[in-house]
Amino acid sequence: MSDEVRRVNRTLIHKGAIIEYYVDTMEFPGGSQAKWDFIKHNGAAAAVPVTEDGKILMVRQYRNALERYTLEIPAGGLNPGENTDVAAARELEEETGYASDDLELLISLRTTVAFCNEKIDIYVAKNLVKTHQHLDEDEFLNVEAYSLKELEDKIFRQEIEDSKTIAALMAYKVKYGI
Known about the structure:
By secondary structure, this protein is of the alpha+beta class. Helix content is 20%, strand content 43%. The longest helix has 14 residues, at 163-176. It is elongated.
């Protein structure tokens, strides 16, 4: 008998475009077992794009899981073997039409630790240069600029509920003393 929780089996249930869904058989101290859901995610990167006048570029896009539009920082999944700073720069340009070679890691976060391994590295992007959007075929979004105070107000009015966006904006505020 072990004093540790351990996985004794993992069964792939479904492999989707961005996640894999498994059912794990877990064994607990004393020998009892239970089934736990596990979602494997390959990771993501995001950016807090800050303009010269201190505004933050946000993207408004439709999210199927919520059946509505959301306001978020630009973000996206990692390509195989891609570093998160490269992915953050790529997603920034693809989604906002701005590029930056001035990215600084702000925070790393785990989105849903109870059943998913997704990790997002979030960067602050400064010295933005206007290029043009390179949206994926299934992406339809608008770029909007806000002050940090406006975004804070939206958070506390529950107009922004996306966890990566809230964490990123609050970390940005604390780190830069704004």
